[in-house]
Specification:
The chain is of the alpha+beta class. It has a domain of 62 residues. The protein contains 3 helices and 3 strands.
Length: 96
């Protein structure tokens, strides 16, 4: 029988906008990428603040004077911030 309703693999880029498939993303594209994958808005200004004031944000690179984000770095940063998967909001994570 068909697998029409099975979602594409998580690493399948065919459903993403063209700029999401680039290896290096500009801050506006990185903002859109993070917003898409986190489900909440991450403003370009927030990325700029994280770069200048904190070490919380994703790693970035400078090519000459241009700031870029490697897509693999963004994916790793997202994965590092995800909490343990839970089945209920009442789970505390203390159970063995």
């Amino acid at each position: 029988m068909g697998n029409e309703n099975v979602p594409a693999a998580a690493n399948d880029d065919s459903e993403l906008p063209a700029f999401f498939r680039r290896r290096l993303l500009t801050p506006p594209h990185a903002s859109a990428y993070l917003s898409h994958h986190l489900g909440c808005n991450v403003a370009v200004a927030t990325l700029a603040k994280w770069r200048c004031l904190t070490s919380f944000g994703p790693p970035f690179h400078k090519v000459m004077r241009k700031v870029v984000y490697a897509r693999d770095d963004l994916d790793a940063w997202i994965a590092a911030r995800l909490g343990k998967a839970q089945r209920s909001t009442s789970e505390t994570g203390d159970a063995a």
